[in-house]
Amino acid sequence: xxxxxxxxxxxxxxxxxxxxxxxxxxxxxxxxxxxxxxxxxxxxxxxxxxxxxxxxxxxxxxxxxxxxxxxxxxxxxxxxxxxxxxxxxxxxxxxxxxxxxxxxxxxxxxxxxxxxxxxxxxxxxxx
Length: 127
Description:
The protein has 127 residues and is α+β, with helices and mostly antiparallel strands. It has two helices and nine strands.
């Protein structure tokens, strides 16, 4: 009886560590700083600096899968799922009320962001 208790106790620690996430070193495959340009149409004679700022898309993904997306000068934050789905949690520092879906996919050395259109992103991170 004593032996079975000590075996059970010996197995409890590895099982506890497994479920606590200890030793789990998940790194998002999308981690890095990325930038791209959204295709937008502007009225004639729109200031080029306004066009650049409005069209610029910047995405930062941390190794643990958190992201900040700046799109049309609006910051969106949340988490990236393993399959590349962006889960919006905050928009402009407030709880997000985004009724759109967004997804990332690898494309060569860059990413493609599907969010209200398709946007090619290139790395801003040093190699």
